[in-house]
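Lab notebook page, bench 4
Experiment: in silico fold of construct C2
Operator: M.H.
Input chain length: 308 residues
Purpose: comparison with the prior construct
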Amino acid sequence: MPARPAVFLVAGLAALAAACAAQSQRPAAARADQERCGGEPIFAAGGDRATLWLRNSSEYRAASETVYRAAEAALAKGLADSAWTAEPVQSGDLSALPPAVVMDIDETVLDNSEPQVLMLREGICFDEFPGAWDDWVAKHRAPAVPGAVEFVRAARAMTDPSGRPVRVVFVTNRECAPRAGSDAACPQKENTLANLAALGLPTLAEDVLVKGERPDWDSEKLPRRREIAGRYRIVLNIGDDLADFLPGMRRATISERDRARCAQDAYWGRRWFMLPNPLYGSWLVALGPSLDAALAAAPQVMPGCPPP
């Protein structure tokens, strides 16, 4: 027994030495990657800690499951009220429409931290990202975001007061694009359906709306939500990016984004539910090209929303 502390000390010192060695090697590796990428940072530069948090922290799992449990409770409440909608373009008497939940896919239902690790470790350049991403999508093996599968199953089992079941419709910016060796018009959609099915969530093709599937379905999701709103009462919207809920967010400044968030304050946590995603998103684009400058700047988000 007395020898055990010494064993732990040796193991701890070994781990510390290994970590220090890795840190000393990282700047050289980063410089090599940057040179290979034409002097630009690698695609996933700066994402180390966020990736580790998503893949290893109990805090992330607790946060995600908390969001989904709150969403399930809100869905039950919204189903009972035929005037309830999570889509601002809908109004008036909606009782004739069956209920639906709109969900994003990546980092909302599917966890794509594995290719993030690959991009970090292999130093994937910006121009290499589309191919690396499509290779990952083709494998259709992404695990589920914590709480997502349970929520979708629970939602599909619910009905409105008229007995109509909830339809879960996925709106994703996975992009339809030709792929060598595939005759499919949209192999990315087929891969996504296969991934959902592998998680125990078989889904109709018409319930996955993919970017580029129609000419007007670009990265802005409002046209696809309008399409859904013509057929269903949208009871909830669930995503991981402000642009999953609000139009015009992909080119907005930080302060513009935050004003838009506050303008719809009544929706958050009631009809709209946001999953944490520190890896990527329109928030990162809004920071600008220099992370050093963003770190040096004062925060441009509001501490609280002004009263309506």
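Observations: The longest strand covers residues 167-175. The longest helix spans residues 3-36.
Next step: discuss at group meeting.
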